[in-house]
Amino acid sequence: MNIKYIALLVVGLGIAITVSGCGSPPSQIPSEPLATPALHSPIPDDFQRYSVPKHGFEIGYPADWKIVAEHWVSPTVDSPIQLMANFENESATQSFAVEISDSGYNEFAKAYLRDKVSNEDIEVNGYPVMLVKDSYNQLYYIFTNPNDTDVRVVFVAPAETTDPALIDQVLATFKFVG
Q1: Cβ–Cβ contacts within 10 Å for residue 167, how many?
Q2: Number of domains composing the chain
Q3: pLDDT at 36
């Protein structure tokens, strides 16, 4: 075989692989590593407590913030969320939400992991946490209840508008109780 034909074959094969995507990782948006909470920000003494005894957790939030919406919903196939509580500061420039999912992992994954850009496993207050960033630039801190692995508490924060020190302070108050 002529060297010219071999070179042409190699180049053609390279183009075919590039175009078809073979040999490359699945198409995901590349991202820098997620910001793992340092949990070094001191927790103010005047934080209020938000607790949900039915699902055995509590979390703190700033005294000057308010709960702007709290509602129980019936889980569906597309949304396994049972409770959603939205918190915001007085000027509504910063916010976060706490959501509870108590369905199986497959339903949970459909709702929370479908728009995932990146994720990493971290630890917060001794709990293993999956930190997920989605294509809308939301950060999801997913805590799984050690006493009931179908119960997941999800802390949701808009990455661009919520102060990282505040996220650290709020996450440092999270705990499972009961």
Answers
A1: 22
A2: 1
A3: 47
